[in-house]
Amino acid sequence: MTPGICNALHDDHMATVRLLEDLETALTRAGRKKPPAPDDAGLARLLDELVAPMRQEITDHFAFEEEHLFPRVEQLGDTPMLTILKGEHNTIRPLAERLAGLIAASRRDGFDADAWAELYDLGLELAERETFHIQKEEMGFLPLLGHMLAPDEDRALAAAYADAKARS
Ligand SMILES: [Fe+2]
Ligand SMILES: [Fe+2]
């Protein structure tokens, strides 16, 4: 049986929150003042492992919410919550892109003090904004969506989302 679309999004959210918590912990431990040692394999691995799920979050996950789920809830009428959630997607996307770019550059060249400070600030800002965004969706948007969907519509959306992720 396919789990419903709300469960699928919830699982994504929890995985993302865990990654962002790990990022926050690693950055805070390393400190902003000086770049981590080139042989800090733990941090390099954590940053590398962040890139693919972060990209999936700002592409497949955000796009599916915007194209298939927000419009469904908009059928209830004007909902300021959705304007806020879409605005947050638009803020988070370039932050995540920039962070991925810095991580890729550091793999080639290591970190100088400026690049490290930028990654540090960006990483903490992304973690804070995205965690807050997810909390809002978990508390407001998903419960509302869950109430609106009939079981067959829910199954169809969950299958379409699984397809979209498998194709990317
Ligand atoms: Fe979202
Ligand atoms: Fe979401």
Task: Explain what this protein looks like in three dimensions.
This protein is mainly alpha-helical and 168 residues long. It has one domain: Four Helix Bundle (Hemerythrin (Met), subunit A). Helix content is 85%, strand content 0%. α1 packs antiparallel against α4, α2 packs antiparallel against α3 and α3 runs antiparallel to α4. The radius of gyration is 18 Å and the shape is elongated. The protein starts with a helix and ends with a helix. The mean pLDDT is 93. The site of one fe (ii) ion has 6 residues, from α2, α3 and α4.
Largest sheet: none
- Average pLDDT, rounded to a whole number, is 93
Main structural class? mainly alpha
Order of helices and strands: HHHHH
Task: Give the CA-based shape.
Answer: elongated
How many beta-strand runs?
Answer: 0
Summed up, the helix count is: 5
Task: Write out the distinct hetero groups bound to the structure.
Answer: fe (ii) ion
Integer count of domains:
1
Evaluate the radius of gyration: 18 Å
CATH superfamily, called what?
nmb1532 protein domain like
Q: Using the 3D structure, state the CATH architecture.
A: Up-down Bundle
Helix fraction bin? over 70%
Distance between the ends: 23 Å
The percent range for strand residues is: under 5%
- Regarding CATH, which class? Mainly Alpha
What are the segments in which pLDDT stays under 50 over at least 5 consecutive residues? none
CATH topology-level fold name: Four Helix Bundle (Hemerythrin (Met), subunit A)
